[in-house]
Give the backbone structure.
Amino acid sequence: MLRPLVASDAETLASWAIDPVFCAHAGWTLHPSVDDAIPWWRQAIAEPDPLLTRLLALHDGEPVGHVDLYGGEEGVRELGFLIGPSGQWHRGRGTAAAVAGLEYGFTELGLSRIWAEALEANVGSVRILRRLGMRETGFGAVEEFLGASSTYLQFSLSRDDWMADRRPE
Ligand SMILES: CC(C)(COP(=O)(O)OP(=O)(O)OC[C@H]1O[C@@H](n2cnc3c(N)ncnc32)[C@H](O)[C@@H]1OP(=O)(O)O)[C@@H](O)C(=O)NCCC(=O)NCCS
């Protein structure tokens, strides 16, 4: 389940910024304390980037991550997702958040296409994108992931294909 961020979510989101494993995978700056990371999140929630729809991912009512739909092109957004802290990984939360992100984008936002990219070395993320039924469209930039150079794999899904996938046989 997804819901919009509210001011009091800053503490939860900031708490993931002291988890070295999470920060290394997500590309976040590791903070020395939760309090140190709170101001950034308060600001990000109070004054969001107008091109970004960021939603909190919930499991049993508790925050477990966030989903992003980003971009300025009409009817098109980039999907991003993360699950925090790292102790929450490998329980299907990332897949559930990404599935919910697609549903939100195609229904609530009325998008016609959603794309995404993940570094090849980010195995969990690539697995999720493939599982969503997104079409692999090519390669993006090269970036460092956990100390090694890796290439972005890019994915895309049209609303028509998403709808067709959901229709019962
Ligand atoms: C990527 C991320 C969202 C995965 O979250 P998660 O809750 O572990 O996801 P799931 O439990 O749904 O796992 C998805 C699949 O990836 C696998 N997986 C997850 N992390 C993995 C890892 N580090 N190495 C290998 N496989 C991994 C899982 O085993 C699962 O595969 P399976 O169901 O076939 O066994 C999480 O690791 C994260 O937030 N990473 C940092 C941010 C990020 O990379 N976001 C994606 C950018 S688009």
